[in-house]
Write a structure and sequence with these properties.
The complex is a heterodimer of chains A (about 270) and B (about 850). Chain A has about 270 residues and is α/β, with parallel strands linked by helices. Chain A is about 40% helix and about 20% strand. Chain A is built from 11 helices and 10 strands. In chain A, helix 1 runs antiparallel to helix 7, helix 6 crosses helix 7 and helix 8 runs parallel beside helix 9. Chain B has 4 domains: about 210 residues, no CATH class; about 170 residues, no CATH class; about 260 residues, no CATH class; about 170 residues, no CATH class. The longest helix of chain B has about 45 residues. Classes of the chains: A alpha/beta (about 270), B alpha+beta (about 850). The interface between A and B is large, with 37 and 35 residues.
Chain lengths: ~270, ~850
């Protein structure tokens, strides 16, 4: 994985040259992150249709994800995994309880602060890839940098090693719709990681892929994240996928419980 | 069963997208509204015209007319020659009552009855209007009760002092009742008479704008002396021939119908122009209806694909889309027709003004509206929508369901056909241009050429937009990622953006084209006025009607002018209506300044030779519309019906530029006139001052000298006439301007719905952007940049199309309908205002979806598949 090495040194250069100078970034130097957990969720409750027919999806949920830690969440469909992930990513408002991401309390941030947090420190990976069909691979991947105002030259410099790392060297000019599912997800992973986020949120990243390409993607994700030193919250149905995490939780009744070996061993309690 | 489910699914779609439904309907409403309104306007004025001719002519089969009226003595002689014949004398003129123009008609109440005009119901024993003349609504004590049914009664029953009748509607409007004084302004003075009562008739609209009185009274009011305008008769053909043979050669027997024809022909050009504008609006409207409908289908391609996969047959799917289109268009068209009715009432006011300004006095009281019009409007809206929907429905129903799922497939397919579409567009355009340059008089061909040009260009647009956006994206990629993305999204979504750009371009280009057309027209008229109005000051008798500048100036005026110092030369003109073998035309008998061709611009013919022949050889100058319409030019002959010598042949020696009347005009030298017509007083005098004279001082002095002559007189500097003429010109094009703004309205709705659909469709994409770290502001500026780019593209592409449209409007449509040639040029500011218009429309249209998207919940949109 020599490519990843190259990518790593790129990353340090980027940090040193102060590319990401958003407030969230400034308040989180590497040292602070070492100490602070990436995610702290305390007593979180969340309901949909609160005004009409409330459906309580999350109730008094607590979770801590340490720096550089990878946490997997499994659970029945509709149990609220995506909802939790969206809340952590600042895409859903915090209704009740406290959610701290990289030391910032989400319900105290306004929209533009949340945007800055995402732009600088969070990378999203979705089951449905969610690439922008009207942008080519290179533009899709460098989108977070473009949004942060990084100039073309620097973008290209950061893109090259990463494209290489995800095995899409030479595909930069292609548009998403000519790529296979596995290739599209590799683009999505590259996009989630190009700005070296401190936290990566992945919602069933292999859900749309066959077992073999799923495995490849997962390996890629795992190695990139550990080399980057990012924390990871991973939502999945797959035991094998959950296996890459340091800790696994099962989501039931709106709360998280540590996944037992029995779950992992295939009794499939969910 | 399945069809019901499909329809319910459609209903659900529109329930979820109410704005889209609204826009689809509004697009149809506006399109149908414009066409209906113009249709109503044209037909209402035609109908009013028909009614008033019917009112004025009744059963009249023929008129006896003279070149300049008929001596009253002839009438007496004629009656005794044909004692059994139904014949009656008529005088017609115009007067002002307050600010309203009325036609003042003098009739002979005794001879009148059989003619059944003015709504007289001519049943035996019922004298209709005439008896109402007797039994007045409010009997006036001043009026001696006379038995009018007795045809032998003395005519002093209606003494000149007795008064006039007007329609109840007019009387109510002017708050007049029987016995009230009427202060009338004739061409040169004020006269007073009284209102006798109301005209009653079966159709009140027919009598609108008429004042009726006994012929003797009207004769004295209008100072006609012993001259009557015409004799109306009722005769079958053999009898008519007998009468014709008996007439002296200075009098003519004409068919009543031919007179009506001539008058109708006068407004033809104007109405054709109006129709042209409405067709243009229709074309733009149809285009936009097509767009709106295609969008509602395009947007659901994936939904349709799912239905296909489930097993719904493609004919069934196709049918369900069509039914949906029919339902939507029924709603839209119905509203459109009724709005068109309202709009039509406003347009009628504008067009009546124009007709009165330019042609003849017309009172439009009734709005022409029939059930057929309603069905016509409905049919129009439905046809346009169904054709539009079926094109995209066919595509949706045919597409392989797997492909329809993939947005990229749609785009790829679109991209693949772009070059083919563009080539087809080019071919159609070339065909249109070829048609446009084919020499012909046919208006229809002109319209077809115009349409082909627009359609062909429209097909070219997506191709151009695609490549321009691709290019811009590359140029910008280094400079501004957001801007580059904006251009890129136009390129990558060309199946949608292409439609929106095409719609905006066509709509904006039509306003540009019309602006250029009106501007060129105005500029040409302006130039022409500058060249023609060579006298410093013009004297004329104030006229009641703009078009009828034919009052007579007293001799004392000319004498006063000739005695005035500081005047270099004087021209004199006598305006009259001359009858020719090709119709009745305004004619000017001219004594030019020093017999020089001052203020005359010859279009064809050698000026010097033509002028020699005009002055010394009784040559006739004809105006351009006359030359164009009747294919006349120097060397041709024209037969005029002269007062003294009957039909005489004159040589056309030149064609002059003239924008006064689209009907056509002629100019004779006064010496020529005097040889064939009885000498009459001039109606206008033009004065050129000596160079060293202070013109305004001199005019002031002249004015004060002329006041002593006691004749009502207009003393106008050439600049005043120039301005007035341009004001009338502007009034004429008021209707066109109104229609143009409506077209812009249609365009706006079209682009709005296109952009709305486009942006809402991409909601998920925008949500991904937000999740990836784009701020609300960035998203807003992305969408705004995208719409701005579309607006700029549309503006840039609209200019060439608009220019071509203007060329066709000016050199083909206008030339063929009015007979006027003119230079085409782009008026100042039209290009920039085209850009402003297209960008504003695009930005306004993009604003709402942008705002809505930036407000919406990211997580929610990410979930939406
Ligand atoms: N905007 C919303 N309004 C109402 N209900 C919602 C909304 N979003 C999600 N839900 C409901 O909340 C519940 C949790 O949804 P969520 O997507 O978090 O589940 P999940 O655990 O991710 O399921 P899956 O494994 O199938 O992806 C579901 O029952 C869903 O129907
Ligand atoms: Mg989920």
């Amino acid at each position: 994985m020599g490519n990843i090495k190259a990518f790593q040194s790129e990353r340090h250069r980027a940090i040193q040259s102060g590319v990401n100078t958003t407030p969230a970034r400034n308040s989180d130097n590497d040292f602070a992150k070492q100490l602070a957990p990436a995610v702290v969720v305390e007593n979180l409750s969340h309901a949909y249709n609160r005004k009409t027919r409330p459906r309580h999806i999350i109730e008094s949920l607590s979770l801590t994800v340490a720096h550089k830690e990878a946490v997997a969440i499994v659970g029945r469909s509709g149990s609220g995994k995506s909802t939790l992930l969206n809340i952590i990513g600042g895409l859903e408002p915090v209704q009740d309880g406290v959610v701290q991401v990289l030391g910032l309390q989400l319900n105290k941030l306004n929209d533009s602060q949340l945007t800055n947090l995402r732009r600088a420190n969070i990378g999203f990976i979705y089951q449905a890839f969610n690439l922008i069909p009207t942008l080519n691979v290179a533009d899709n991947i460098t989108l977070p940098l473009a949004l942060a105002g990084v100039n073309t030259k620097d973008r290209a410099e950061q893109l090259a090693p990463l494209l290489d790392a995800v095995g899409l060297d030479g595909r930069g000019e292609d548009y998403p719709d000519v790529l296979s599912g596995g290739e599209q997800q590799r683009v999505a992973i590259a996009r989630a990681l190009i700005h070296k986020p401190a936290l990566v949120l992945a919602d069933e990243p292999t859900g749309n892929l066959d077992a073999k390409s799923g495995r490849v993607i997962l390996g890629l994700l795992q190695s990139l994240i550990s080399e980057q030193g990012s924390s990871l919250v991973l939502v999945t149905h797959s035991l094998e996928v959950a296996g890459i995490a340091d800790r696994s939780f099962i989501m039931t009744g709106g709360q998280l419980a540590p996944a037992q070996d029995s779950h992992i061993n295939g009794s499939l309690a969910w | 069963m399945v069809a019901r489910i499909l329809l319910r699914s459609s209903l659900r779609f529109y329930k979820q997208h109410p704005l889209q439904l609204l826009l689809a309907i509004v697009g149809i409403v506006l399109g149908v509204c414009i066409v209906t309104a113009v249709f109503i306007t044209n037909n209402s004025s035609k109908r009013a015209f028909a009614l008033s001719t019917e009112a004025l002519y009744g059963r009249t089969s023929h008129h006896i007319v003279g070149a300049q009226g008929i001596d009253q003595q002839f009438y007496a002689q004629f009656r005794s020659d044909f004692p059994q014949l139904q014949a009656t004398p008529i005088i017609e003129g115009h007067v002002l009552l307050g600010n309203d123009v009325f036609s003042l008609i003098g009739i002979d109440p005794f001879a009148e009855l059989p003619f059944a005009r003015l709504g007289i119901n001519n049943n035996a024993g019922d004298n209709g209007f005439l008896s109402s003349l007797l039994s007045l609504d409010e009997p006036s004590t001043e009026l001696p009760a006379t038995d009018f049914s007795n045809a032998n009664a003395q005519s002093d029953a209606l003494l000149p002092s007795a008064g006039l009748l007007m329609s109840a509607a007019s009387a109510t409007r002017l708050a007049l009742t029987a016995g009230d004084k009427l202060q009338l302004r004739t061409s040169n003075r004020f006269v007073e008479t009284q209102l006798l009562g109301n005209l009653t008739s079966d159709n009140p609209a027919a009598n609108e704008g008429l004042l009726i009185g006994d012929i003797a009274l009207v004769q004295s009011l209008l100072e006609r002396g012993d001259i009557i305008d015409r004799i109306d008769i009722i005769a079958d053909n053999p009898l008519a021939q007998q009468i014709r043979d008996s007439l002296p050669n200075t009098l003519k027997l004409n068919n009543a119908a031919s007179r009506t024809q001539t008058m109708l022909a006068m407004t033809r050009g104007f109405q054709i122009n109006l129709t042209a504008m409405s067709l243009l609006s229709l074309l733009v409207g149809a285009f936009l209806i097509h767009n709106t409908m295609s969008f509602t289908v395009l947007q659901r391609r994936e939904l349709f694909a799912v239905k296909r996969t489930i097993g719904i047959s493609s004919p069934l799917l196709f049918g369900s889309i069509l039914i949906e289109a029919v339902l939507i268009s029924i709603v839209g068209s119905t509203i459109g027709v009724f709005l068109g009715l309202l709009l039509g009432q406003q347009l009628i006011k504008l067009t009546t003004q124009t007709i009165n300004d330019l042609y003849f006095v017309l009172h439009v009281q009734e709005i022409w509206f029939t059930p057929w019009l309603f069905f016509g409007g409905l049919l129009l809206g439905i046809t346009c929508s169904v054709i539009a929907a079926s094109i995209s429905a066919l595509d949706a129903a045919r597409t392989n369901p797997v492909q329809a799922h993939q947005r990229s497939a749609t785009e790829q397919k679109t991209r693949a056909v772009l070059p083919a579409l563009a080539s087809l567009g080019l071919v159609i355009m070339l065909f249109g241009l070829a048609l446009a340059t084919t020499p012909s008089q046919s208006l229809l061909l002109g319209f077809i050429a115009l349409m082909l040009l627009i359609v062909g260009y429209g097909l070219l647009l997506p191709f151009i937009s695609f490549h321009a956006s691709k290019w811009l994206k590359q140029v910008l990629s280094g400079l501004s990622p957001v801007a580059s993305m904006a251009a890129g999204s136009v390129e990558r979504n060309i199946s949608r953006t292409g439609l929106a750009i095409a719609a905006l371009t066509v709509a904006v280009s039509s306003t540009f084209g019309v602006d250029v057309m009106i501007g060129s027209f105005r500029g040409s008229v302006d130039n022409w006025l500058g060249n023609t109005l060579q006298s410093d000051v013009y004297l004329s008798v104030p006229s009641t009607v703009v078009t009828q500048n034919d009052g007579a100036l007293d001799d004392i005026i000319l004498q006063t002018v000739q005695k005035t110092e500081g005047i270099r030369s004087v021209s004199r003109g006598l305006k009259f209506k001359s009858q020719s073998n090709i119709g009745e035309f305004d004619t000017l008998a001219l004594v030019p300044h020093n017999n020089q061709p001052i203020g005359i611009t010859l279009i064809s013919g050698n000026t010097e030779r033509a002028w020699q022949r005009f002055v010394y050889e009784q040559g006739v100058l004809i105006s351009e519309p006359l030359a164009t319409k009747y294919q006349l030019g120097p060397g041709d002959n024209i037969k005029l019906f002269t007062e003294l010598k009957g039909d005489q042949t004159f040589h056309v020696v030149g064609v002059v530029r003239d924008y006064t009347s689209s009907h056509g005009q002629m100019t004779l030298h006064r010496d020529t006139y005097n040889a064939y017509w009885r000498n009459r007083a001039d109606s206008t005098i033009g004065i050129i001052y000596q160079d060293n004279i202070n013109k305004s001082e001199a005019t002031k002095k002249l004015r004060s000298q002329l006041t002593q002559t006691n004749q009502a007189l207009h003393v106008q500097a050439n600049s005043d006439i120039h301005e007035n003429s341009l004001a009338i010109f502007d009034r004429t094009f008021e209707v066109t301007r109104v229609l143009r703004w409506l077209t812009v309205g249609v365009a706006f709705v079209g682009i709005f719905s296109a952009l709305l659909a486009l942006n809402l469709e991409r909601a998920r994409e925008f949500a991904v952007l937000r999740a990836t770290g784009s701020s609300r502001k960035q998203l807003l500026s992305l969408i705004t940049a995208q719409t701005l780019w579309m607006g700029l593209l549309a503006g840039a592409l609209a200019v060439p199309l608009g220019w071509m449209m203007a060329k066709i409007l000016i050199h083909i449509i206008n030339l063929r309908s009015f007979g006027w040639s003119m230079d085409s040029f782009i008026p100042d500011g039209t290009v920039s205002s085209t850009f402003v218009l297209s960008c504003t429309a695009a930005l306004l249209a993009g604003l709402y979806p942008a705002w809505r998207l930036s407000q919406s919940k990211i997580a929610r949109q990410l979930r939406d598949e």
